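Revision sheet: structure tokens.
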Amino acid sequence: MQPTRRQMLSAATCGFGSIALSDLLCRAGDLAGGSAAGPANGNAMPGPLAPKTPHHMPKADHFIFLHMRGGPSAMETFERKPELDKQANRNASTSANDAKPAKGKKPRRQLTPSHWKWKQRGESGLWVSDLLKHTAEVADELCVLSGMHTDIGNHTPAMLQLHTGSFTFTRPSLGSWLLYGLGTENQNLPGFVSISPPVINGGAKNYGTAFLPAVFQGTAIGDIKTPVKNASVGNLSNPLLNRRQQSRQIELLQSMNRDLAEQMNPADTSQVDAVIDSYELGFRMQSELPSVMNLADESQATLDLYGIGNGKPSDNFGRQCLLARRMVEAGVRHIELCDEFWDQHNNLVSGHNARAAATDQPIAGLIKDLRQRGLLERTLVLWGGEFGRTPDTAKENLDGRDHNPNGYTMWMAGGGVRGGFQYGSTDELGYKAVEGRVHLHDLHATVLHLMGLDHKQLTFNYAGRDFRLTDVHGNVVNEVIA
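Predicted:
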């Protein structure tokens, strides 16, 4: 029986694409009068997601962000602190630094040594602790940034700044800026995917578009509370219509949308354009995304490389990492993965051990797999959290560390960065970045540069002002570029 016109339109507003179409309509309706998105160099393109010419020759074509939500400890992972070990158990004063104890309390503090042993790894001799034994195997691929710092030490605003460059205003995410500036290679898949994103600490704002057109928003696959093997893309299938009927429905809806656009001022059609583009992408995704997400054709050796199967603690993040590799192969521009919970104010040893058991082998497997397939050279991988952890803790809780935005570590690999290289450092105890200081704005500028974009030229005019990811800040960290 043929569906009624009301059923067809109801199905459309329920959605069948990467984002519920009713949500897209709401988002499109929220777009203000900024100019329609264009390519980075201003050349006309057939659609907003079509590949665009970068500002300069890129080092990388794809970007994977391994987000360790909560803040891994640098002195337990990649920044060895012999002086901290020497001064362990001595009283520490928070008055000499800006690192703040949990929840603003100011109890007596005590310096705490690293809880794991250290070794120099690979031909480069990069220091990596025994906590990350698998990642240590790919040390010669890592460009460790030990002078990272950010502006705030609370999770939600720090995560927003990590993803959007701002913790005070709603701004487009890094992934949306990349998609806006570069487009994507595969028009049948979303160009920006967020796998298992957090539902708190900013939620969808971390992969949202803000004032950029809705078509550049990230596509969420599941959420942090849902195992990846059970996750799916919302509204990807249409239970009311078959493929032929959906095609006819799209033709009807798009003709109505284009009629509406023709009646509008050309400067005001970005809302309708975003809906048109999103409808068409959602329809195309039905044929290709399920096959990309299906791991059944992967060999047992590959599954073992990522630590997938047999109830292993690495199974869930291993699936995320393997999906990221498959999406890179399929032409997705930016993929973000997320793991929690690295926020150990207490029980740090058991907590960091648990997180390492969940992520260490999959991350090393991803680097090895990208390398052996010839993909690492053109894929930039970034690892890290929204801030780091203090070298001291409250005396009543010696198995923990608190938030530290003033000095922490992230690393990059592939995509044109120097491997087996450590840039920057914190002071001898680990309170503050003192050498090779890299602010988040600098990191964002560097990521854009490696992807072929000039962060000062990648702008969008909104409310009478040209906005950019780095606002009025940011410098490319040339020292880390190969």
